[in-house]
Amino acid sequence: MSTQRQQPETESEADSAETETAQERRLDEKRRRAEERERERVEAEERIAADAERYHLKVFRYDPEVEGKQEPRFDDFHVPYEPGMTVLDALIYARDQFDASLTFRHSCRQAICGSDALFVNGRQRLGCQTQLSDLDQPVRIEPLPHQEVVKDLVVDMEHFYDQMEAVEPYFQTTDRPDGELEEQRQSRENREKIKKSTRCIWCGACMSSCNIAAGDNQYLGPAAINKAYRFAMDEREGEDMKQRRLEIVEEEHGVWRCQTQFSCTTVCPKDIPLTEHIQELKREAVKSNLKFW
Amino acid sequence: MYEYDVIVVGAGGAGLRAAIAAQEAGADVAMVTKLHPVRSHTGAAEGGINAALRDGDDWELHAYDTMKGSDYLADAPAAEALTQESPKEAIQLEHWGMAFSREDDGTVSQRPFGGLSFPRTTYAGAETGHHLLHTLYEQVVKRGIEVFDEWYVLNLAVTDEDDPDERTCHGVVAYETATGNVEAFRARDGVILATGGLGQVYDHTTNAVANTGDGVAMAYRAGVPAEDMEMIQFHPTTLPSTGVLISEGVRGEGGILYNDEGERFMFEHGYAKNDGELASRDVVARAELTEVNEGRGIEDEYVHLDMRHLGEERIVDRLENILHLAADFEGVDGLEEPMPVKPGQHYAMGGIETNEYGQTCVDGLYAVGECACASVHGANRLGGNALPELTVFGKRAGTHAAGGETEDPEIPVGKTDDAEPGDVETPVELGEPWTSEAVADGGATAETGEAVVERALERERERVNRLLERDEGTQHAEIRAAVQHTMTENVNVFREEEALKEALVDIHAARQRYRDVYVADPSSTYNTDLIQTIETRNLLDIAEMITVGALAREEFRGAHWRKQYQERRDDEWLKHTMVSWNDGRPELWYKPVVLDGENQTYEPKERSY
């Protein structure tokens, strides 16, 4: 719209012209403000668009020591995404930038220390090994199920460690070579046979995923049985020791409790065929018992 | 108060081996570790264990390679102890059931590694450290050795004589992570520090988050000198986005490095005309960065490590773990494409000054493994020499602390008559005492060991309470990030005077901010905020020691490259950099390198590969 004006000729005309000018100024100001608001709106939209680059985490919180956290709840965190970012990276960001009290175990961040097994979007995974981009949002992060929660994402691992130690998890043989520089030889085939079982990093994911372990606190569980497998199948320990190991895993809360649900194998971050190992020990146990009958 | 003959702090390879040895020598042993033993960073070691096991090889060749690799900054008695005892220790591990890779005849396999004149690296796939850690822990379980896991050692309990050489260590004070309790541990015979690396002082590192140099910082503040701290190893092959380690085993098996122009630069640009990719680590790390700096890097950041030509069978047999790491952490299929790699902080060659039995100048205080400097690695550690260091010196220290039979050490510790004062111009005053409050020397002079430990306990309880009571200020994460950033920017592979000075200014600023540090989490249950705050305090001292040593050493030796000084200067610098805590400020001094071995003197020669 054109706003061209003529020179005022009379006083009244001059008055009205002045009013018109003031109005004009107000309009200009309004337009300016509108423009500013529009710019703000666009910027806000841009920010929201950028926020879409943020990952939405829903993280389990609980602390028996702090009144406000004694009732378990989920906290939301929005973490800016960078390519290659893992669940652990996101948790570290959330802790360092938003809430220093957010508590979880972690150390090596390369899938070997086994300390950051978590329940992420309904499955046991290592935080450091799980890419955020592989997950649906919001990413739900919880402590391992079926373990007592100590605080936030930290669970009590004592029971898991006790079960690992219940299978006599150390090499035992009476057949040592004489010389201190002489190996007790092992065939390549035999090493290959036990190789996968030796990869266990004690993360506890398998135990947490196992329905049987959840219902039977005394069940040795997949990790401990796999540890027994590692030694029972090692040819260097000899037949007598193998018998002893089979007796341990054959006890009431041992291999026969396994119902072959494969959940341990599914979640193992080191791809250990846990269920297969348990089945193989069942077969070995049957075979060795048959010998005596 | 808990009481044992020997207390081992840290439960990685060195700590576990020390505990086993001490127990075998008759001691009542406890281990105190901030993680659980199987979570220790030894588990991340990939490559292998150097041990002269075969015909055609012997410990003297291994010792020669080690001294040459160190650029003549290792002490010969330590290097010879390492190489003489490594075969026995490697086979001991085999007798404990360790699943080494095998030859057709059932003996353990060995492969070539950088800087070695014989293929003497014994290995278990590309996950040797994982096997070693678990094998040693199994033996600790078998022996029923007591382990206090997730107990963070806050400080040592050391007497307070003016001269550190006259002090005695009587125990440690530790914080139980699960409950927030601070408790004392008295050691009747000795405390062995086996707290591992300090890589968290950098932001691109292969080291675990737990590797914060706690042992070095604690010993330093108790008066033990830190030795050769400027000697930081940068591993040539780490994944660019995370710092995850790609084993030297890849190059040992025949992996090739290429630049963006597809050139095999180690040969084509003359970095190592004989050994190429298998030159020692400092040489390869510098070559890669030079390629990047001269515009031949890929995406201006990294180079390629290619192992495809080795064939799937061999890769899966010997390097399977590498395929998983490349896929999980970089999204690269090592069978189909080359892997991106760049140098990353990997190992601290320096550390707590010890002799070849792990003894420090403080009576009853030992250090072994990466936190210690015996010194076997000098200015550059050979790949495959860290794991035998753990076992050999772990065993020696454990035996010695428990009063077992040993010989007289040849390496002197503490300030002897040979000490030469150091002098360096710094842009700011170092080691401001305000951050030393209540964390200095371990205890007042007291009549009994118990009293020393009680005093230390009291002081640490006060320190923890003070940190928890404050409810505003600066958070550790901010300070830690600032230190990591400046170290990576300014104290990396290539070092220049101005940058080193800038780092000291930044560290000084971080110290000032630490005055206002506070712990946001008030909880006494699993308070990682508190532990990380104390770790960050340790990182400040570590960063400063590294940087001041680097600024002072005006020469080019091993991993220590200085722009203005492009030559090794044996006439002036064939000596160890020592930093001592002097009322809150670092005091720089030097001690001679011991080049005399059992049968020969290792005369410095020009190092070529």
Automatic annotation (TrEMBL), chain A:
Pathway recorded for this protein: Carbohydrate metabolism; tricarboxylic acid cycle
GO molecular function: 2 iron, 2 sulfur cluster binding; 4 iron, 4 sulfur cluster binding; electron transfer activity; metal ion binding; oxidoreductase activity
Biased composition (Basic and acidic residues): 22-45, 175-190
Signal sequence range: none
Pfam families documented for this protein: Fer2_3, Fer4_8
Cofactor(s) annotated in UniProt: [4Fe-4S] cluster; [3Fe-4S] cluster; [2Fe-2S] cluster
Annotated segments matching region Disordered: 1-45, 171-190
All residue ranges annotated as the Succinate dehydogenase/fumarate reductase N-terminal domain in the record: 56-161
Any GO BP annotation: respiratory electron transport chain
Top-level taxon of the source organism: Archaea
Keyword flag Glycoprotein: no
Limits of the 4Fe-4S ferredoxin-type domain: 198-272
Keyword Iron-sulfur: yes
InterPro entries registered for this protein in UniProt: 2Fe-2S_ferredoxin-like_sf, 2Fe-2S_ferredoxin-type, 4Fe4S_Fe-S-bd, Beta-grasp_dom_sf, Helical_ferredxn, SDH/FRD_Iron-Sulfur, Succ_DH/fum_Rdtase_Fe-S, Succ_DH/fum_Rdtase_N
Keyword vocabulary terms for this entry: 2Fe-2S, 4Fe-4S, Iron, Iron-sulfur, Metal-binding, Oxidoreductase
PANTHER family noted in UniProt: SUCCINATE DEHYDROGENASE [UBIQUINONE] IRON-SULFUR SUBUNIT, MITOCHONDRIAL, SUCCINATE DEHYDROGENASE IRON-SULFUR PROTEIN
Record family assignment: Belongs to the succinate dehydrogenase/fumarate reductase iron-sulfur protein family.
Protein name as it appears in the record: Succinate dehydrogenase / fumarate reductase iron-sulfur subunit
Native source organism of the sequence: Haloplanus aerogenes
UniProtKB/TrEMBL annotation, chain B:
Ligase as UniProt keyword: no
Protein name: succinate dehydrogenase
Top EC class for this record: oxidoreductase
Species for this entry: Haloplanus aerogenes
This enzyme's EC code(s): 1.3.5.1
InterPro entries documented for this protein: FAD-dep_OxRdtase_2_FAD-bd, FAD/NAD-bd_sf, FRD_SDH_FAD_BS, Fum_R/Succ_DH_flav-like_C_sf, Fum_Rdtase/Succ_DH_flav-like_C, SdhA/FrdA/AprA, Succ_DH/fumarate_Rdtase_cat_sf
Entry-linked Pfam families: FAD_binding_2 (PF00890), Succ_DH_flav_C (PF02910)
Keywords: Electron transport, FAD, Flavoprotein, Membrane, Oxidoreductase, Transport
Membrane topology: Peripheral membrane protein
Residue numbers spanned by region Disordered: 399-429
Major subcellular location class: membrane
Domain FAD-dependent oxidoreductase 2 FAD-binding: from-to ranges: 5-387
Subcellular location: Membrane
Top-level taxonomic group: Archaea
